[in-house]
Design goal:
single chain; alpha/beta; Rossmann fold; 4 domains; seven-stranded parallel sheet
């Protein structure tokens, strides 16, 4: 059976195949890629994407871990020779696509396409801020000035990773609300706008979801406002994250410290008393603000601070301050307005961030897509839940009869390569595993509090072999073996632990989100008002998708073997447990850690033999 489940609308297979030969024995991919392994799933994925792109049909593809989905979509993009934007979630994946996979595609096709990479503004050097705030104080910022002198002749200057501290980076980069765009005196040599122009001249653009969603949000309000020019196709890799990312861009975020930052950076033109009062008001809010919700008292105090700071900025007849004041005023109006959506505030490193997030942003997403490309392609290993794409489609604003859908069979032999253990042993499980496990262990928690508790427990037993997600850069763990990695969503979603020799993936609990979270609670209430069941229609499908993401961290190659452990008996005792059990439906069960150790020892001996 080719598809995991039936779909209502699939592309027409009667059309002659056009990309299959790239994946055949002795074909272009095998010749171009050392140790290339032919996988039916990769060829099927590429064929599906090609047919959808050729006919400009929106496509949703669930391609399992190990299917080689990057080359599966690059082959059609090169074959069709149309302007294509490729977006993914992380900088690491952007670098892999631009530095490795695109090079392979260029080699296969024997053509040098114009390829550009575009990141968010914060990744690019701002000349205005440098010459206004840094260069006049060269002795104080000697490290930045010396670095600038080595890159000043570059057309596009990117901020190097790991060289400057957060304060230095903030001094020479700009957010969208600070950027004067075409009114800036350095606009003609602006690194971001030059990178943007290169991207809009390119055949293939590689970007990230955050910049792309920002672009969609702009275009949903005004089809002429844009970061990226119109493309024939937009391919969204790791597309499962889009329903959570886009609403934040469709909404509004306001930093209260932004007002004070403008005053401090332009002290000579402001009355010191106004700066002192603004700082005092913000300090008072930071001390007293404990509620995330906009209660009447909270709202009144926030409004009082914003009104005062807004008046101080508004009194200055200086072009760059006027531009910043205008944007901050627009943000404040949006974030404090009435209307459907979630409005809340949270503290963050001496700042208070006000957020407005619409409960349903699917119409805006569709509008932004319509003004961005002729047809989109959504690709991920986890887009379905409960044998349906309905949750994902609802979040992106499509119905099943508007798109082509395909879900591919798993690449790996789960029954042969893995074993599943379901238990409620809790902390005693970790204590025993620490003493007996060989190979690395990935523990995925539902909260940072639980993450730190498990870390403390394990460090008492194996102090040098335990790292939380805040203590390690997973991209720099080459050579780590017999290590416990403990994290939350960041470790569950799209992170590649292949080089660390993961032998166990442990889910501390089934990955349900906390319904008391402000955003989730409001979303649930909205669904209930519409006659839907919040648990069945929202929390459950999301949890199943998160579970499938976690499961996908274990097997990355045909030679991998491992253990999935779920420390939550609800998987067995609750009716909804079926949807989690079905993910590894035919995987043999084990009941003890000793059985897990024996299974891994046997498979290791078999591999070595």
């Amino acid at each position: 059976m080719e598809n995991i489940f039936e779909t209502k609308h699939l592309f027409n297979y009667s059309v002659a195949m056009s990309v299959k030969h790239y994946f055949q024995e002795g074909g272009p991919l095998e010749k171009a890629v050392p140790r290339y392994r032919r996988r039916k799933a990769q060829a099927d994925a590429s064929e599906f994407i090609y047919e959808c792109m050729k006919d400009h049909t929106p496509a949703v593809l669930e391609a399992p871990t190990g299917s080689g989905k990057t080359m599966a979509y690059l082959i059609p993009a090169f074959e069709l020779n149309r302007r294509t934007i490729i977006s993914t979630k992380t900088k690491q994946l952007m670098s892999q696509i631009s530095g490795k996979d695109i090079t392979t595609a260029q080699k296969i096709f024997g053509t040098e396409k114009n390829v550009a990479v575009l990141k968010g503004r914060r990744n690019y050097f701002c000349h205005l801020r440098f010459f206004k705030f840094i260069y006049p104080h060269a002795l104080r910022y000697q490290n930045i000035v010396e670095w600038y002198e080595t890159v000043a002749d570059r057309e596009v200057i990117e901020i190097p990773v790991g060289v400057f501290n957060a304060s230095d980076i903030e001094s020479v980069t700009v957010d969208s609300w600070q950027c004067m765009s075409s009114k800036c005196e350095f606009y003609d040599i602006c690194s971001f706008y030059r990178a943007k122009q290169k991207a809009n001249d390119a055949d293939i653009v590689i970007t990230n979801h955050y910049l792309l969603m920002s672009d969609f949000a702009l275009k949903s309000e005004n089809e002429h406002a844009m970061i990226l020019d119109f493309a024939d196709h937009i391919i969204m890799d790791e597309a499962h994250s889009i329903p959570d990312i886009f609403p934040r861009f469709a909404g509004t975020e306001l930093s209260l410290r932004s007002y004070l930052k403008v005053m401090n950076e332009n002290r000579p033109v402001f009355d010191p008393r106004d700066i002192e009062i603004t700082a005092g008001l913000l300090s008072g809010l930071l001390e007293d603000l404990t509620e995330r919700r906009y209660t009447a008292d909270v709202s009144e105090r926030l409004t009082s601070y914003i009104s005062f700071a807004d008046k101080v900025l508004g009194d200055k007849d200086i072009e760059d301050i006027k531009q910043i004041h205008k944007r901050l005023s627009e943000k404040a109006k949006s974030v404090l307005a009435d209307g459907e959506g979630v409005r809340y505030c949270e503290q963050e490193r001496g700042d208070i961030i006000l957020q407005y997030i619409p409960l349903d942003a699917s119409d805006k997403l569709r509008e932004g897509l319509k003004n961005s490309c002729a047809s989109p392609v959504f690709v991920s290993a986890t887009l379905s839940a409960k044998e349906s794409f309905s949750y994902f489609l609802g979040e992106i604003g499509y119905s099943e009869d508007e798109v082509s859908l395909k879900s591919l069979e798993p690449v790996f032999d789960f029954e042969k390569q893995g074993r599943l253990m379901v238990t409620d042993c809790g902390d005693s499980f970790y204590e025993e595993l620490a003493l007996k496990a060989k190979g690395s262990v990935l523990v995925i928690c539902n909260s940072t509090a639980r993450m730190y508790k498990i870390s403390k427990l394990l460090k008492n037993i194996i102090p040098d072999r335990v790292f939380t997600q805040t203590e390690i850069d997973i991209s720099d763990t080459e050579g780590f073996t017999d290590t416990f990695f403990i994290g939350c969503a960041v470790f569950r979603e799209g992170m590649d632990f292949a080089h660390t020799g993961i032998s166990y993936v442990v889910l501390d609990k089934l990955p349900f989100e906390y319904p008391d979270d402000i955003i989730l609670k409001e979303h649930a209430a909205s669904l209930k008002n519409k006659g839907q069941d919040p648990f069945k229609d929202y929390f459950l499908p999301r949890a199943v998708i998160y579970y499938r993401q976690a499961v996908g961290r274990l097997l990355r190659h045909e030679e991998d073997f491992g253990i999935w452990a779920v420390l939550d008996n609800r998987m067995e005792t609750k009716n909804y447990g079926k949807y989690f059990r079905d993910v590894l439906i035919n995987v043999p069960r084990i009941n003890t850690i000793d059985e897990a150790v024996r299974f891994l020892e046997v498979t290791d001996e078999t591999n070595q033999g």
